[in-house]
Structure prediction request, 101 residues.
Amino acid sequence: MENNTTKSSSISEIKDKYIGIAGTVSRDKYESKLKIDVLKRMRKTTKTKTEILDVDFIGEQTPLTSEEEKAISDFFRLKKDKNRKQKTSIYKSTNENKISI
Prediction:
């Protein structure tokens, strides 16, 4: 029988062999490009990543009761109304400061 053994290498050994030893110009270029690529991917995923919260998640393990759903809906409705009033008051105050000739 043949002895089929494979030599395993660590990632750093493979990098040293094919890219260059740490501290060399080629290895430094590789490391900097890799860091830039990782940062770009992280930025892209944070921009595009959205979390959808369903009722079960918001209400922990059990679904929300109708009273809880109504309370949450009322809260968001009041929040929207408050924001809308603030925007309207800002718009009115800026228009009052204008002088028409």
Notes: The chain has two domains: 10-50, 53-96. Residues 66-96 form the longest helix (31 residues). DSSP finds four helices and no strands in the chain. The two ends are 103 Å apart (CA to CA).
